[in-house]
Specification:
About 30% of the residues lie in helices and about 15% in strands. The protein contains 5 helices and 6 strands; from the N terminus they run E-E-E-H-E-H-H-H-E-E-H. It is globular.
């Protein structure tokens, strides 16, 4: 279903198994992030929560999507993931049910996100590029999500604006988000 016009046409599964329409976020800026609790980028949860607290009243929603496709870094159940996010990082933004972001079983939302913002992943990604070149070279030059904590910025109209690789911290992308909120 890559023919969709916006993310609002997709539904996702909450951590407790309910269906949630992304249309519920209409007219808000959305940051969609694939997350994991045992990753070197996991401390970004703190920055994401700080960004959430600073901008939620101005129109930003952060949506976390756990994924275990990268180094088995999200092995927990949905309940365990919720507990981890709450107790370790005091996360208050929604963290949905675990899903796949790449491959034949990729969630349709992620198929859409990847097609809309394939990224420009290359050597300028530094150590992450070296890691991917060594461990997942077949993904270089494709629209696949390369690792945990890849971020997709979505405008108030539901269209994907930009993709940020895992190495881009919430603090670094805050200025881009602020431009959409003001």
């Amino acid at each position: 279903m890559v023919d969709a016009m916006s993310v609002y046409e997709y539904s996702v599964t909450t951590a407790n198994g309910e269906t949630k329409s992304l249309g519920d976020y209409k007219d808000r800026v959305i940051l969609i992030v694939n997350v994991a609790s045992k990753c070197g980028f996991t401390p970004q949860y703190a920055g994401l929560e700080a960004l959430h607290q600073a901008t939620k009243d101005r129109g930003l929603d952060i949506l976390g999507f756990p994924c275990n496709q990268f180094g088995d870094q999200e092995p927990g159940t949905n309940a365990e993931i919720q507990d981890f996010c709450s107790t370790e990082y005091n996360v208050t933004f929604p963290v949905f049910a675990k899903l796949e972001v790449n491959g034949p079983d990729a969630d349709p939302l992620y198929t859409y996100l990847r097609a809309e913002a394939p990224g420009d992943f290359g050597p300028d990604a530094g150590f992450l590029y070296e890691h991917i070149a060594k461990n997942r070279p077949e993904t270089i030059g494709t629209d696949e999500v390369k690792w945990n904590f890849t971020k997709f910025l979505v405008g108030r109209d539901g269209e994907v604006i930009r993709r940020y690789e895992s190495t881009a911290t919430p603090e670094e992308i805050g200025a881009d988000i602020a431009l959409l909120l003001d």
